Structures are given as structure tokens and as C-alpha cells.
């Protein structure tokens, strides 16, 4: 019984600390003057301009669309130009590849922070061989020119064909490939 009481007491103390911190922050906000608010607006405008600049850079690099890899030089050029790349190794005759293809083409339109592309392994078998792709579909997740993870099949999406685009986004987000705001903290200057 005593350990339960101690645990309750610890939780109560944490809750009180959190409440004090919230009260302090609310008080700080309530006591802001026009200069403080102007400074906040100025910083936010700077962040928005920086985000817009990054979005323009990403669009110039072909982000925002789901591209087919045309040849090996183009593949490696994209890898060098983009910080985050998701590559779908697929075959059009494979139904699960087409399911993933549909999700990725939708996600690419909304997430400019990551470059999306696909490799039709029937057209470019050497790329699949080069990266040891043995099962389709396979998503190769690349950050700063390094493949750090591959999603093979649908296991990470729930193991069935009925997963939603939101589920796909969440899985890609857990691997650091997507951000729900479309901008990564590392991409922003918080001066």
C-alpha cells in the first residue's frame, strides 16, 4: 500500500510542477507588450520566408512529384541533390507495387521535404541488382546519400493491402522521411 501512496504522491508532485510551469508561461504571455509581440511576429515572418525559400529550392530539384528513374546518372544526380529520397522499387504487373505507387504519388504532392521516385525493375534491372532488391515492393529510404532503411513488402504498413495513405505517411514519418508540417527542424534557422 505504501508504494502505491508514494507513486500517487510522485505523480501529484509532477502534476503540480507542470501546472506551475503552465501558469508561469501564461503569465509571461499575458504580460507581453507590443514590442514583445512585434518581435515574435518578426521571427515568425523570418521562419515563413525561410520555409518558402526551402520549398522553392525543393521544387527546383523536382520535389512534389513522383518521378520514374530514367537512367543511372539521373538516379545518382537526384541522390546528390536531395537530402531525403524515397525510392520505390516496383513492377507494374505486381498489384502490391501498384497499391504503394498510388499512396506514394499522393504523398509526394503534399510533402516537398522529401524527393519521391520509383524504379521499374523490368526497365532497370541493374539498379535493383546493385541495391540487392530481392522482393517487391521495396522502399529504399535515403538520407544524405546513405540508405539507412528499406521497407520490404507491407509488414510495416500493417501486413495487408488495405492500409491508408495516412498509415503510409505515419510509417515514413517514424523513419524521419516525412514531417507533418512539411519542414524539418534541421531545415529551419531559428535565429
Automatic annotation (TrEMBL):
SUPFAM superfamilies: Thioredoxin-like. Residues 77-153 form the Thioredoxin domain. InterPro entries: Thioredoxin-like_sf (IPR036249), Thioredoxin_domain (IPR013766). It holds the Pfam family Thioredoxin. This is Thioredoxin-like protein, putative.
